[in-house]
Structures are given as structure tokens and as C-alpha cells.
């Protein structure tokens, strides 16, 4: 039996940059239903944002996805206050040294962010700006943000405009994070499979996390060999074990009675792999009663392949749509599909790429009556203030001046990834823009 | 070696024969005389002109069965040795005089065959005079040399002889016969045969020139008779050239070749290396180009005669300084053409060289373990093997829309060709009926998976093989369902040509056309398949309506033509897979009488052999990793894309970069010591953990590993709109996710010149250059044909740049 299991977690998502935003106004009118279930959200403890855009906000993250929001909110240059544990070494007069772990409240000026989407841990490093008994100003420290612990974020606008403060994007992002409208939706677990390959993903409101990839070589069918069936069964077994572990699903007998909610589980594959997996789970349930709780929440859908970019197809399938109703993810996917359709029609009413979109905006093509600016939140994570300003101003202009729609897609969703392929920005136009203009624009770009 | 033994035996026997032999047969003696004369002349004429006593000569002649050439060579060689060594021992007997003194007793052969006997004859011809005057030294030593030298020559000669034999069957036959005679027969026989035609001819001429032709023509005639060719009178020089060769004694062809070799290799024997050049002519003579040879031969300068006959005769003779293999050796060589001898000095002659290389190649093939390490050699080995063993082979993939009847059609084909036995078929039928799918029985031959059978759908490719009289076919049965197009791509990558199966049912054909019929056809075309056979299946369900067939033919052919198939590479066969009509046998349905073209199998057989990159570095995409059994815990299967490999080779698997050893190889289900590009093989590996092997990985050699890349540029034909997007990249079994990161330019279809740089989007049917990025490093190298898919449909196919 030849088998290869790669239990390594696959880390995805970008690790650089900070700051992201969503547009609550935009969302609020799109979101019509709310689930009755209450989901924990980031708690806004204190909000002191001035009119000029500077100010502080105190937040308490309560669930892992909040870390992702924090990751998008915090940008280099911001001031961050949070509790920290620091090892302090003191030297006595005698020359002997002693070290102790001290609990401190530190304020740092953010230099760098490190976000691990799989474990939802956010590490923020920077220089300490407040003097304490144990630290000096200018020393470096890395804050590890923790769940259920407050942190305070301050964004400044300098006299020379060296900071961006709480711009519109940041504000919306904040509203999104604290979930003002209570629109956060249930998560789902998706298992995208093909023979010998399974991707277990957690689909959240703002991000899709690839939790684990199961890879195993399943012998192909051969003459006179039952190897294939054996291999497939083993593959199912490994996949199920992995899935249960990732879901933290308790399969002990005693757990059969508890009624904790089970997330929807989407099984997707080309051909019959997903259906076979469902059958396998059913067969397993007869020997492991706890699994029966899982069965009702399983949905089998079709996907073109076993790779994660088939997720968009999964999310668009009718059965999943009814299940997940109106998640951000589903809307984003729909939006991208519409855009690509428009692009395919070659009506010149769709364009993508930074320069092209800016040119279109300049011509007033992204305005009232159907103009939609689609932008990835990845662009707002730029370390460069000017760059961020460029995009924020573009968004503001489209929304406030031109009257068009702006949609900010999460780069941690599949649709966001598709958008990033297009340069991170695209637009649906109200009227066709001649190709020639774009060409000249390209030439300009080339000249650069 | 055996000949020596034989010879000795012969000597013993000769004891009594001697008297009767020498004296009683005047013809023979006469002939001997002639030979002696010839030898003397040649000795003199030869570069290092040498003299020898009559006895010596005659002795030599006897030993060489009157082969003048060899005798001369022998003598010359001996002389030279002596001159160098100045050994008196041998010389004692005859300093210069040709005195009838008997050779030293030591050498028995000599004693038995005393030179004296021959000497007596000499007066007859009046030849002795010349000899006496010219002969310088002793013959004794030579004998030993003769005996010793012969084997050497033999070994070498034998190879060449073998070659010669192959080419000239006639000659070979003659030689063989000669060989048979000489060793076994006592001298008496020799006497008949001994006069070699070649020598004769030369002798004759010389005689004529010297006005010595006092000999009775009878002897010559007799000799010739023995030769097997009607000996024309001496005057007829023309034909003799050929006739002399056939001589039994010398097995002319072989000796000649041997002589050539011997020249080079044995410097001791021949002082004059210059003479060697001519031999090439000789080789050519063997081949049958007589006139050309004669003209070319420089060696003939030495010989007096200009005539073709003479030339021919002389070739074997002294002027060329051939060291002679003993006749026995020659014979042996002729008989066992391929023995482990080294061809030695044929260098100067191109022809000989070739022959040698052929021989050595042949030797390689024979050896148990081929040394296939050098690529160029591989080619030769393969070519040889193909010549000797293999039928022409062809792999074809069966494609078409789901439920077109691909598997059933192929099951029928296999059943009809006897690749599957009736009992198994019956078993399938019963089982299929049991689950209510009786019509799938034939498909079960290929659909072996339990799920495939339960659902009645082919999921993965199945390979099977069968042979017709002319061709060994490997079938790759591909799934038609759109979800399994990746598997179909894997199958198509193993195929030389394709069979497109079409359901002629009303409505089915049309839906297939919209479905996978087109996609499959486009895919196989873009993967390099040139020839396509369209099997219009299920014709029985439409009553073999010609109109239907014509309609389908018209639509499909127009589509295939636009897809890039040449019209002459497209053929249509109406058939019925379930009934077997027009598959292997012609349909007997009266309604199908309008079709008179070839059946499917006949159409398949028209496929031409395909060439593969045998001399390229090894490349093989792993199709499957499995456990081959208790003895072969790790096996991989696939088709060799390029190069060759053999048991014991160290291979490298990419992208894991792990090495493994090949424990054994199966080619098309049979164990083999080697495999070459184009073959479907199973490799049983050792020294590797299966975790490093995945289907889609590439096997190569550490010396020329395939690079793993994460981004590449490709020129593709778009089937659907292309833009920066997420795609799946397929190459055979390789299936990885990636994205188009950049549209570099759309290109002109014909010229490939860029039409528009950095297009926003590339429409269907456009050729474009794109950049593709992948998340993981993948073993790919240009030029590789790739297929790009997205969302379950094929969006583009093209060539890596």
C-alpha cells in the first residue's frame, strides 16, 4: 500500500501588512436576514474617534476571527496598548543577575504585524513609547494579542499628514468587526475532495481558512486488483479523522446526548468521491453513534476539482446557497462571477487593473447607475501611507462623488483571490470605455 | 580450436594416405604445384618480398588447404619473425635452398605431409626454379605459428565472417559446406577441394602470363566443379571471380574478411601495412560489387593481372598481406558467426567498420545485461530489438461523450481479438444481468472498478492490449463523463492516435457534440494526436441508416478539420459495439450493405508506427503508484515519454528529488530488462519510500534531472475566455492548481506574431502567450503540452515555452 499523508497544515493568506476595511453602509443595505443564533463578536469597549480622524478605540476580541479583523485594523505607525508579559533582567550591585516575568501594560508604535490565520494568532511588534518601571522608551517589544483581553488602538493624524488616522475604510472595517448590524453568519466547513486529495476549509464571514490538506496516493484501478477500493477506503478514513479533529467534534459515546450545534459540512468533489465519502460516514455512524449528529448537516455538492479554488463553484450551488443564505462570501463570489461574465461579453463595460480602473473613474464610468468598484482589502494593507491613501481616496470618490458602489472583497476568500489575480481592483462600468484608451494607458504603464 | 583437433586427427589418418594421396593423384599434385608457384610469386611480389622453400610453401599450402593467400601470409609472417629473431632452430633445415630436405621432425604435420612429396611434383610445372632461387628460409617454425596463429585469426575473422555470411547467403552456404568438409575429411577430400577458386583463377592467369599453363585443364575444371560454379575455361576470367569464393576449403568470404582483420591486428605477420588499404575492396567484393571493387583496389598493383578475375583471385592472395586465419578457423567462424571475438583491424575500410559495429551491437543484444548507459547506444539496441522482436505497436485512446459506448466497443474489440476469454465474458454477463445492467457486460472488461460497475460509468482510464497479425495495440479506455476529463487527459497523454466513439442515436449525437465529444477531440488534438478514427457507434439502433451516418460524418469531419486534424487522418466507420458489427467482422445486417469500407480493426491497423524520443534524457510521468505484490512493495506505472531505462538504473523522482533503484521492469505486462520511450511500463522500485511518489511526478535521471518550476510561459489556444484567473494545470497525470498571472500577448495564429500586447481578455479561438504561476513547484519543462482547465471545462491548451 502506498500512501502519502501530509498532515501539515497549509498556511495561506498574506503575512504582511495591516489594515483592512469593509464598508458598513454598503453591507447594511445588502444584508437582509440575520440569524437568530447569537454569535460572539469583537466587543467595542470604548470609542474615542475625533472628527479629524484621530482617536483611540478599545476593543476586546472574543473569537478567533476577531484576530483577523484586528490584523486588518492595526497598521504600522499606529499606537497599540495592550497587556504584555516581559522578562526583566535586573543586575544587583553585587553583580548577580536575576530575571523575572513582569506583567506590564505597554504602548508600542507598530512596526510589523504577523498574522497566522490557521491558529488566528496576531503578533504585533514595535517600539515601546511609554516608560514603565521596567522598560525604556525605544525598546522593542512584540505584543501577542489574546482573546478576551482588551487592547487599545490609536491612530493619529500628524500635523504634516504623516498618518492616515481613522479613514473611511478603517471606520467601516471597525464597524464590520464589531458587527453593528449583527449580520455575522454561521460558518461552514467545506471538504473539497478528489480522489486522493481533500482540502478541509473553514468558511468564515471574512476569511476562508484552509485548515488541513489530506493527500494520499490512491492506487488507480488495475486489472484484478482490489487495491483501488482499499485505497479509497483508507483515504476516506483519514479524511474523516482529520475532519473530526479539525471540527473538534466529540465522538465519544457520551457526547451523543449533547445538543451543541454542528456547523454545516459541505462535501464537494467531481464525480462520486464526495458521495462515497458521505456513504462512508453513514457506514461509520452505525458503529460510532456520535457521528449521527453530524449526518444531518452534511451537504454533498459538485465541484470541478479538489482544489480550493473550486470553492466558488461550491458556494454558488443552489443547495449551499439556501444553507448559507447570504454570507459575505457568497455575495463576493456572485459579484466576481458577474464581473467576469461582463468581461467575457467583451462589451468594454468591465475593466480591471489599477491604472485602468483609475482611468475609468476619471472618466466618470464608475458612477450612479451600475458602476461598481471592486477592490481587495489587500490593497489597504500596504505599508506605504501614500499607497493606502491612493486607494482610500479612490473608494471615497466613487462612493461619495460619483455615486457608484464600492465593494471591498476579503483577500482571504476565494473570490478575493480571483480579484487579486486581476490586480486587486476591478470595476463594472456604466458605459463602455473604448479599448484604445486602455491601450494608451497600458503604454503609459509600460513607459513607467 | 576444434579444427586443430580435427587436423591432428587428420594427420594420423594421413599416415597411410600419404603415399596414395600425394603420388597417385596427379591432378592434385599439379594443382599443388600451381599453388606453390602462386605462393612464390606472391611472396616475392609482396611488400616485404620474401622467399621460402618449396617444402615450406607446400607445407603451408597443405595446412591451409591450398589456400594460396593464407599460405603466403603465413610464410611471410614467419619470415618476418625469423628475420627479427634470427632463430636458427627453425632455419636449420632449409637455409635457402629449396632442397627436398624434409622439414624437421618435430612438427608432425610436416613429417606426414612432407614437402618432398610436393616437391617431386614441382618439376612437372617447371616452377621449382623460381622458388629455389627465391626461397630464403626455413618453414619449420612457421607451423607452430600457423597452428597458433590460426585461432587468433579465427576469432577475429569469425565476426566479420558472420557479417559477410549474412549478407551473402550464397557464399555462406558454400563456406559452411566447405567448413563441414574440411575438418572432418582426410586429406583426400582436401585434395579435391583444396584448389581454391580464387587462387586458381589467379594462378591461371599468372600461368598464362608466364606461359606455364602446362597443366591439364581437367584439374582446374574439376576444382571448379567442386566449387559449385561451372568453371569456365581459364580464359573466362570474367565469371570466375565469383566462383572462386565459393570454394569449400577456404570458405572464401570468411577467410577474406579474416584476412583483412588479421592484417591489422597481426603486425608480426605482415611487414607491409600499406597493403591493407585494398582489403576494403575485398569486403565490397564479398558484398557482391565486383566491378567496383576491382576498379578501386589499389592492392592489385602488386598482382600482375589486371583482370577482374585476377583481382578477385589476388585479393585473397598475398598482395594484401593478409594474415591468414587457418581454414578451420574460417569455417568455424562462418558457422558460428557471432562469437566473442573482437573485430580487430578493419579500421581502414568503412564497410568493415560498419559491419563490425553491427556485430558489436548484435553482441550487446545477445548479452544478458545490456549496457545501455550511453544514450546513443540505447538507440541502437532499441532499433535492433525492434527489428528482431517486436511487431509494430500502437497505443490509442478511446474518447467520446459519456455513454457513447466506448468501453463496450473496446470490450467487444478485446473479446473478438481473443484478448479476453469467453468464460470471463460469460461471468461478466451474468453478474451484469444480476444487477440489471446486462448491456454493460462488455464494458466490464474494462470497467473493473466496483463503483464503475455499480454506476455503469467509466471513471478512470483502463489500459488493455491485444494483437492483430501486424500490430500490437494498447487500448486506453478513457472516461467520457465531464468530471473525469482529468483522467481522460492522462489517458490521452499515453496515446499515439485516438478513436472517437459517437453515439448515432437520435438526440444522443447532438447532445454529445455539445458535451465531451468536442472537448475530447480538441484535447487529444492539442495533446499532439494526429490521427483519429471516428467510430459511429450504435448504428443498429438507427437501422444502419446511411443518411444518419452521412450526417454525422459531415458534421464531425467539418468540426475535426477546424480542430486541426488533416482530412486524410480522419476516417469513419459505422459500427455496433454491442453486436460487434464492423468491429472485427463485417456487418451481416442487410441494412448495412451500403458500407463497404474497412472495419474498425482494419482501420486501426492502418496506423503508422510512431517514433519516440528514445535518445532524449529519461522522462516518465508516474501514472499510478501501487503495491505490485509481496515481492514488489512499491511499483509505479506510466508511459516513458522519452529516453530509456533498464533494470538496475538509479532514477530520480521529481519534485521530491528522491532516488530509487529499478528492481524490475514490466513492459506491457511482460517482464523485461529494459524499456524505451513510448512503452507502457510498470517499474518495481527499491530504496525509496512511497511517500515520495505521487502520480503526476516525473521520473528522470540524476544526470539530467527535470527542473521543478513555479511559473512558466506558455503559448496556448484559448477554448474559452482567458483572463487572469485560477486554473488547473494538467499534463498527463499531473494535475496542479495555479493561476494565469499575466496575459502577455495575443498572437497571430499563423505567424505567431503578437497582435495585441497585454490584452485584458483573450477570447475563445485565440492564440495567446500567457504566464502561469503555481503554488507548488512542479516538474515541467519545455516543450511540454499542457491543458488548462477551470471550473470543470477546458479553457486552453498549449505548449510550454
From TrEMBL, chain A:
UniProt keyword terms in alphabetical order: Cell cycle, Cell division, Cytoplasm, Meiosis, Metal-binding, Mitosis
Organism: Penicillium chermesinum
Similarity comment text for this entry: Belongs to the eukaryotic release factor 1 family. Pelota subfamily.
Chief place of localization: cytoplasm
Cofactor(s) the protein needs: a divalent metal cation
Domain eRF1/Pelota-like N-terminal: 42-179
InterPro entries on file: eFR1_2_sf, eRF1_2, eRF1_3, eRF1_Pelota-like_N, Pelota/DOM34_N, Pelota_N, Ribosomal_eL30-like_sf, TF_pelota
Summary of the function given for this chain in its UniProt record: Component of the Dom34-Hbs1 complex, a complex that recognizes stalled ribosomes and triggers the No-Go Decay (NGD) pathway. In the Dom34-Hbs1 complex, dom34 recognizes ribosomes stalled at the 3' end of an mRNA and engages stalled ribosomes by destabilizing mRNA in the mRNA channel. Following ribosome-binding, the Dom34-Hbs1 complex promotes the disassembly of stalled ribosomes, followed by degradation of damaged mRNAs as part of the NGD pathway.
Annotated GO biological process: cell division; meiotic cell cycle; nonfunctional rRNA decay; nuclear-transcribed mRNA catabolic process, no-go decay; nuclear-transcribed mRNA catabolic process, non-stop decay; ribosome disassembly; RNA surveillance; translation
Name of the protein described by the UniProt record: Protein DOM34 homolog
GO cellular component, one term: Dom34-Hbs1 complex
Gene Ontology terms, MF aspect: metal ion binding
Compartments where found: Cytoplasm
UniProtKB/TrEMBL annotation, chain B:
Keyword Amino-acid biosynthesis: no
One GO-annotated biological process of the protein: cytoplasmic translational termination
Keyword Transcription: no
Low complexity bias (residue ranges): 86-98
Entries under InterPro entries matching the protein: EFTu-like_2, G_TR_CS, GTP-eEF1A_C, HBS1-like_N, P-loop_NTPase, Small_GTP-bd, T_Tr_GTP-bd_dom, TRAFAC_GTPase_members
GO cellular component terms given for this protein: cytosol; Dom34-Hbs1 complex
GO terms for MF: GTP binding; GTPase activity; translation elongation factor activity
Coiled coil: none
Biased composition (Acidic residues): 11-28
Top-level taxon: Eukaryota
Tr-type G domain boundaries: 391-618
Location in the cell: Cytoplasm
Catalytic function, reaction form: GTP + H2O = GDP + phosphate + H(+)
Start and end residues of each stretch annotated as Disordered: 1-28, 79-103, 165-276
Pfam family membership, one: GTP_EFTU
Subcellular location, principal: cytoplasm
This protein's UniProt keywords: Cytoplasm, Elongation factor, GTP-binding, Hydrolase, Mitochondrion, Nucleotide-binding, Protein biosynthesis, Translation regulation
Family: Belongs to the TRAFAC class translation factor GTPase superfamily. Classic translation factor GTPase family. EF-Tu/EF-1A subfamily.
Subunit structure: Component of the Dom34-Hbs1 complex, also named Pelota-HBS1L complex, composed of dom34 and hbs1.
Protein name: Elongation factor 1 alpha-like protein
